[in-house]
Amino acid sequence: QKEVEQDPGPLSVPEGAIVSLNCTYSNSAFQYFMWYRQYSRKGPELLMYTYSSGNKEDGRFTAQVDKSSKYISLFIRDSQPSDSATYLCAMTYQGGSEKLVFGKGTKLTVNP
Amino acid sequence: DTGVSQDPRHKITKRGQNVTFRCDPISEHNRLYWYRQTLGQGPEFLTYFQNEAQLEKSRLLSDRFSAERPKGSFSTLEIQRTEQGDSAMYLCATHPGQANTEAFFGQGTRLTVV
User: Fold this and answer.
1) Are A62 and A77 spatial neighbours (Cβ–Cβ below 8 Å)?
2) CA distance B102 to A51
3) Does A51 sit within 8 Å of B107, measured CB to CB?
4) Which residues contact B80 (CB under 8 A, 6 or more apart)?
5) CB–CB of A108/A10 below 8 Å?
6) Tens-digit pLDDT profile for residues A9-52
């Protein structure tokens, strides 16, 4: 079993839809949780960064962390064609290298 | 543009050749990471530097791989005797080393071994 599990999709939604992306993890030591967006042939760019449990909102994006269930989510409201990309969840814990452990990524297409 | 620069962006090489990639980090970032991403997968950690010291290496980093970060500035990743399985995107990420801050990724070097 991988440390971080993420459904690779693909996920196709109409413009304006609410998108829900999820990851589960097995390592209870993870403290920092991130969502990255990656366009084709580009490096990942950070969308959301959350420490421990709770919700965080930034514009059309909301990140949720439920440490008791080892489950994190990213919601995208009013999705736009420009949101079409691969979304990667990543997590780490403080101490040591603080290397990121990534999910496989979910490929999202928002259709106009 | 995150400020992390990788060169080259794309490299095509024949099996058995050696290749070297370069990463120029954001200047004040003392932590530097290399990751490898294959098609349909998330990035996987390869190695980590704090300043010039290489402090952690993944078991993915076989003895054909070597990385350096002289003087704690730019970093190089060399692959000797390339194999087709080495074909991947090689990503560099840098971090300022302060708690609760993000890592910044470069655009990656896409390696194709033919």
Assistant:
1) yes
2) 11
3) no
4) B18, B64, B65, B66
5) yes
6) 899 999 999 999 999 999 999 999 999 999 998 999 999 999 88
A44 three-class SS = coil
Cβ contact B50:B68 at 8 Å: no
Q: Look at the block and give the residue holding tokens 């490299």.
A: B11
- B36-41 long-range CB contacts below 8 Å, 24 or more apart? B36/B60, B36/B88, B36/B89, B36/B90, B36/B91, B37/B88, B37/B89, B37/B90, B37/B91, B37/B108, B38/B87, B38/B88, B38/B89, B40/A8, B40/A104, B40/A105, B41/A104, B41/A105
Enumerate the β-bridge partners of residue B6. B23
CB contacts under 8 A, B 11-70 vs A, are 31, 33, 35, 40-45, 48, 55-56
**Do the Cβ atoms of B107 and A43 come within 8 Å?**
yes
Residues A71 and B3: their CA atoms lie apart, in Å, by 32
**CA B92 to chain CA centroid, nearest Å:** 4
Q: What is d(CA A67, CA A64) in angstroms, rounded to the nearest whole number?
A: 10
Closest partner residue to A97 (CB to CB) among B55, B108, B110 is: B55
B62-110 confidence digits (pLDDT tens): 999 999 999 889 999 999 999 999 999 999 999 887 766 788 999 999 9
If DSSP codes are grouped into helix, strand and coil, which group holds residue A8? Answer: coil
**Helix, strand or coil for residue A3?**
coil
Q: Within 13 Å and on the Cβ side, how many CA atoms surround B79?
A: 27
H-run or E-run covering B33: strand B31-37
